[in-house]
Specification:
The protein has 33 helices and 29 strands. With 1002 residues, the protein is α+β, with helices and mostly antiparallel strands. It has 4 domains: 305 residues, no CATH class; 48 residues; 258 residues, P-loop containing nucleotide triphosphate hydrolases (Rossmann fold); 114 residues, no CATH class. The strands form 4 sheets. Strands 1, 2, 3, 4, 5, 6, 7, 8, 9, 10, 11, 12, 13 and 14 form a 14-stranded antiparallel sheet that branches. An 11-stranded mixed sheet has the order 16-15-25-24-23-17-22-21-18-20-19. It has a two-stranded antiparallel ribbon with strand order 26-27. The longest helix is centred in the middle third of the chain and has 27 residues.
Length: 1002
């Protein structure tokens, strides 16, 4: 075999050199033997930055940016294809080498970033899951999932190399010493051309950047050792210059052998990994005939099909962008042949020519018209060869995977399995020649651009909590930092979680709250139904958490005058005129309190009484008389109504009577404080987690009109509104730079109350200034869209299963996804479940996630890691009678580990890794060997995730509910009354927190 023969020749040369040593001229070291010099087994001769040189060619290598394909309109996709085609068309007369490879998800890099970004973590609790255990468990779970990132490289021929250039390479050691300028003359001459290519490929479409020295090293390892597990460590990058001399290339080729038996369907790749010999069989396939694909109307990019397979796939494509004059000459010759054949039928034999000849003639004329008219760079022709490589542990597995590639491309694309596998495998190495000109494909640059090789799932970030994985064509982890938008991108922290019953909104909210709490955030959660209160009972959170059932709390805890925080002077230190801004906010907070108590008391009245115009007038006069100071309460408003009744305002007495009646209800006591008792909120607020529940409260049916609400339902909506305002109070009580979170459930009722809309708007505008992540959960996206400006202020969006057509359209508007192109139906297929399955529905829920900065993908929520089993059980809200024994004692039921039915059946479930050992690609490794502990006691596993093996993956609304501007909150707009409110003097420090944004009224 070729490889073995070269090895034998090398050993013969070594033996001859050893048997007959000759002394060099000049100085030499003792025992030094003559050497013929090192010649690498590959065609590459040197690497300079992102330039590679062979004996005949210089190529510049670039790394292509990931391109989003999912949830884009066909128009946007066509624009992307045209942009790529235009860039390819500008490369006429050049050879291109396209390489698509994979890199294991960098688990250790994510862990280090996450650990560094987790500021102000809570102390560990003895006997509970500590931070080190939590971080280690997250890493082990990620490693077991074995996911990778797609990386796309493009090599562009800069120029050919003449004899003088090759001589300069041979004499490089001497020239570097005596004439360094001559040694660099070739690269200096190419500098302007390389700069031109750098600018050309950096435009929209390819979005490419020059490959770094580390990128080139990674590409060389993945190409020379094709199919072998990813290396733990890479060859050291030459310091400063990033240049590999000819002798340095041995770092890529040594220790790797490629062998092939005659007529074998695979090649055998043998290499060393962690001082062990590793062997893989690689099958190389070639792209054959292809039918006309309708991209993007019907079909996906044809190179993206392989991303759906549960194992890594390597691509290598060699393309030549043809010049128009060459294409025109060939077309004329082809047209001459067709005309000659037609004349042969008609003139010589007096027969009608076959229709195939007419079609060929029409196609030649069509191509000629494309080349000679319009934007020629979009119609430039090319020819090339596309190869696909898959690897297996043995020949049978490699052949089986090759068959899967064939099946996934049928029937529109033919995939061939050629012989001469050794030469085809060498094509993947930069600089190597073509193995064969067989299976050459011809087409336009638009056809080649429609492959969109860089299309992948790109959503989330690399420093936040792990919330799941993508479940589209590409499978990769999804990390999300809820405070990245506010701290880095200067964007809003508003988040919408939308979905029908059972879509997983509460589970997702609990996941985000738990993991961000571990990372140092502080949360206030309003969960009317109460399942999230279980988080406060977890051992690691219990000492820092509290659960408050508002329906059983102290009287006055929902006093409308107290739930709106009082602005703090220190929050306005950055303004040009801090005192003026602070006084304006105090006035706005007072107006907000007056409007809030007006809405609450109106909501307590019967609908027929509340809709009377005179009711609003008498209530408004009483509220204005009481004022908007934080030490007031609704009982003072009733007293004012009584005084007005004694003064001759009969309707004021009627309203007061109805309010007194409602005041006797047990739940209404929450609005009226007991002045003989201490203020329930004048206590230490140093809690990491506060969960407010209202268990037993009856809310109206979503979408039901206001006139159909019962008295208890009307009271419930007003209490929910006040409880929501209470959650935002905690934002302004803490330091504005501290990472804080507010989670509100049942927010669809807030959109029906004017002050509820004001609350949503205020949280949206203040979230960036006060570093808040606000989660709004609702069954219908339309309820949130009723809030003016919500769609423009929302940052991240999660949309679960939604069946109603109107609700689906509203959800897509929140996601900023095109409507009317088929995505509505997809929302109805999220979290699918078989019809005839009576098992508990424990499948992980699916959401469409928009991360707020361009990424939109379908993801699967993941809380299946073993170290979070207790969290999963705490968040499980599904009823199950089997959990109760006959005697009434609870029975422990472990949840089933199942996946959604639409996910590939051959995808392996997450690998459960036992403590203390890591199974990486079949090799049992002790994490102590990998440098498990870093940053003192922080458990950050070593470069296993990046540098080790990726195991094969197998409502009706009344008109008065419109949102009012902040200036309209001032009730002077309603009646010409003098409030008599005089702002207090500024107080430095103290106070109850700021209650409104400085920007809200501008």
């Amino acid at each position: 075999m070729a490889r073995r023969k070269r090895a034998d020749d090398a050993r013969d040369r070594d033996s001859r050199a050893t048997s007959s040593p000759k002394r060099r001229r000049g100085r030499s070291l003792a025992g030094e033997l003559k050497s013929d010099g090192f010649t690498p087994d590959i065609a590459l001769r040197s690497i300079d930055g992102h330039l590679t040189r062979t004996g005949t060619q210089v190529m510049a290598w670039y790394r292509l940016a990931a391109q989003a394909w999912s949830f884009r309109s066909d128009v946007q996709r066509e624009i992307l294809i045209r942009q790529i085609a235009a860039q390819l068309g500008e490369l006429q007369g050049r050879w291109l080498h396209l390489r698509v490879t994979t890199r294991p998800y960098p688990v250790h890099m994510w862990a280090e970033s996450f650990d560094h970004n987790a500021l102000g973590r809570m102390p560990d609790v003895a006997g509970a899951l500590g931070w080190d255990g939590f971080l280690e468990g997250e890493q082990r779970h990620l490693m077991g999932l074995s996911m990778s990132d797609k990386e796309v490289f493009l090599g562009i021929e800069v120029s050919g190399r003449g004899m003088l250039d090759r001589w300069a390479d041979i004499a490089a050691p001497v020239l570097d010493r005596f004439l360094p300028a001559a040694a660099r003359a070739e690269l200096a001459a190419l500098e302007s051309e390389v700069n031109h290519l750098d600018v050309l490929v950096s435009g929209a479409g390819l979005d490419a950047v020059p490959a770094t020295a580390e990128d080139i090293a990674w590409l060389m390892h993945r190409s020379v050792a094709l199919g072998l597990p990813a290396p733990r460590t890479l060859a050291a990058v030459p310091e400063g210059t990033g240049r590999w001399e000819t002798e340095d290339l041995a770092a890529f080729t040594d220790g790797v052998s490629i062998l092939q038996e005659p007529y074998a369907p695979t090649v055998q790749v043998i290499g060393r990994l962690r001082s062990q010999t590793v062997q893989r069989n690689v099958a190389v396939l070639s792209l054959g005939l292809m039918e006309g694909l309708r991209i993007p109307e019907v079909d996906d990019p044809w190179m993206q099909h392989s991303d759906r397979l549960p194992f890594p796939v390597e691509w290598s494509a060699r393309m030549y962008i043809r010049r128009p004059e060459d294409v025109t000459g060939e077309l004329q010759r082809q047209m001459g042949k067709v005309r000659s054949q037609i004349r042969h039928y008609t003139h010589d034999h007096d027969l009608e020519p076959p229709m195939s000849l007419a079609r060929q003639a029409d196609r030649v004329l069509e191509v000629e018209d494309e080349v000679t008219s319009g934007l020629t760079q979009l119609n430039t022709r090319l020819y090339g060869w596309w190869r696909v490589a898959v690897a297996g542990r043995d020949e049978a597995e490699a052949v089986q995977r090759a068959q899967q590639v064939l099946e996934i491309y049928r029937p529109k694309v033919q995939i061939e399995h050629p012989e001469a596998q050794y030469r085809y495998a060498r094509e993947f190495v930069p600089g190597e020649p073509l193995a064969s000109t067989a299976y050459r494909r011809r087409g336009s640059v638009t056809w080649a651009a429609a492959a969109v090789p860089a299309a992948t799932a790109s959503v989330g970030d690399r420093r936040g909590i792990m919330i799941g994985e993508t479940c589209t064509a590409t499978r990769r982890p999804v990390a999300w930092d809820p405070w990245l938008a506010q701290e880095v991108r200067r964007a809003s922290g508003l988040t919408a979680i939308v979905g029908g019953l059972g879509s997983g909104k509460s589970f997702l909210t609990g996941l985000v709250v738990y993991k961000t709490l571990r990372a140092g955030a502080r949360w206030t959660v309003l969960d009317p139904s109460g399942p999230l209160a279980e988080l406060t009972r977890l051992p690691e959170l219990a000492p820092f958490s509290r659960h408050i059932n508002l329906l059983r709390a102290d009287p006055g805890i929902l006093n409308p005058y107290r739930v709106v925080a009082e602005p703090r002077f220190e929050h306005f230190a950055d303004d040009e005129d801090p005192e003026r801004a602070w006084r304006r906010e105090k006035s706005l907070a007072a107006a907000t309190r007056r409007r809030l108590v007006l809405d609450v008391l109106t909501g307590l009245l019967p609908f027929d009484v509340a809709r009377m115009p005179h009711t609003r007038i008498v209530l408004l006069r009483a509220v204005r008389e009481v004022g908007g100071a934080p030490d007031r309460h609704p009982g003072l408003v009733i007293d004012a109504l009584r005084r007005h009744a004694r003064e001759g305002e009969d309707h004021a007495g009627v309203v007061a009577d109805f309010l007194e009646e409602r005041r006797e209800l047990p739940q209404a006591a929450l609005l009226f404080p007991d002045t003989s008792r201490e203020d329930p909120w004048a206590v230490d607020q140093d809690f990491r987690l506060t969960v407010l529940t209202m268990q037993g409260m009856t809310l109206p049916r979503p979408g039901s009109p206001r006139e159909e609400w019962t008295d208890s339902e009307s009271l419930a909506v007003e209490l929910l509104n006040l409880a929501s305002w209470l959650t935002q109070r905690t934002i302004y009580d803490a330091d504005r730079n501290m990472r804080k979170g507010v989670a509100l459930d049942e927010t669809h009722f807030l959109s029906q109350v004017p002050t509820g809309k004001v609350l949503i708007d205020r949280l949206a505008r203040d979230s960036r200034k006060f570093n808040v992540r606000a989660l709004f959960a609702s069954q219908l996206a339309g309820d949130l869209l009723r809030v003016s400006g919500f769609a423009s202020l929302v940052n991240a969006v999660f949309v679960g299963r939604t069946d109603d057509e109107e609700a689906q359209t509203d959800a897509l508007r929140l996601l900023r996804v095109p409507t009317g192109v088929g995505y509505e139906e997809m929302l109805g297929t999220l979290s699918p479940r078989p019809r005839h399955d009576d098992r508990p529905d424990d499948t992980p829920r699916q959401f469409v996630f928009a991360d707020g900065h361009g990424g939109v993908e379908k993801i699967r929520i993941d809380l299946e890691a073993p170290h979070l089993e207790h969290v999963r059980e705490a968040l499980d809200t599904n009823p199950d009678a089997s959990r109760i024994a006959v005697s009434g004692a609870p029975v422990e039921v472990r949840p089933l580990e199942v996946r959604a039915p639409d996910e590939p059946a051959d995808r392996r479930p997450p690998q459960r890794l036992p403590p203390g050992r890591l199974d990486l690609d079949g090799d049992d490794i002790d994490p102590e060997e990998l440098g498990a502990l870093r940053n003192g006691q922080r458990v950050v596993l070593g470069p296993v995730g990046t540098d080790d093996v990726v195991t094969e993956r197998g409502m009706i609304v009344s008109e008065d509910t419109d949102l009012l501007a902040d200036e309209d909150l001032d009730l002077l707009d309603d009646l010409d009354l003098d409030d008599g409110y005089v702002p207090e003097e500024p107080v430095h420090g103290g106070g109850s927190g700021v209650g409104a944004s400085r920007e809200a009224g501008r």
